[in-house]
Amino acid sequence: MTRSTTDSMAVLTGMYAAEGEYLAAGGPGSASFDLLAPFFAPDVVLHQAAGLPYGGTWHGHDGMEQFFLAMARTWSAFDLLEQRFLATGETAVVHTRVHARSRATGNELTFPILQTITITDDRISEVHPFYWDTAAIAAACGPAPVHQT
Predict the structure, then answer these.
(1) What count of other Cβ atoms lies within 10 Å of the Cβ of residue 99?
(2) How many angstroms separate the CA atoms of 68 and 76, rounded?
(3) How far apart, in whole angstroms, are the C-alpha atoms of residue 91 and residue 112?
């Protein structure tokens, strides 16, 4: 079945509204992920650039919850300044301009994120965010954690 642009837009706008409610209710560690869960497929996959403090691949609702916790540990503020949506069937593209403040350093920066989002059966099933400059974002957050081998 081919998804209409209107259906994809409804999923995206609903998810971003739910994310706003989730954050207003205290966000990760305080608010229930149940506000967001209806918008994500149970087997959702989120791919984050490896060079970011919250980099890696996050799987399922548990992975999404852990991702939001990692974001909260990284950023004391993460404001979506403006968004543009392009939805075509099962694939949507969202361009977002973000202003963020690092929890560790207090450094602030504004940067764009372009996400491709796959919507399957009225739920987000896969997300690929693309950052303009992952090195600048990582640098604003402070030194990379030291990993023991």
Answers:
(1) 13
(2) 12
(3) 19
- Is 35 in contact with 116 (CB distance < 8 Å)? no
Under the banding of pLDDT at 50, 70 and 90, the label for residue 146 is: very low
Question: Is the separation of the CB atoms in 114 and 130 below 8 Å?
Answer: yes
pTM of the prediction?
A: 0.86
Give 92's strand partners: 87, 117
Mean pLDDT along residues 1-20 = 77
Tokens representing 20?
A: 């706003």
**Per-residue pLDDT tens digits for 51-81:** 899 999 999 999 999 998 888 889 888 888 9
Helix, strand or coil for residue 46? strand
β-strand partners of 129: 115
> In Å, how far are 52, 75, 97, 124, 143 from 17, measured between CA atoms?
25, 20, 17, 14, 33
Residue corresponding to tokens 């305080």 = 30
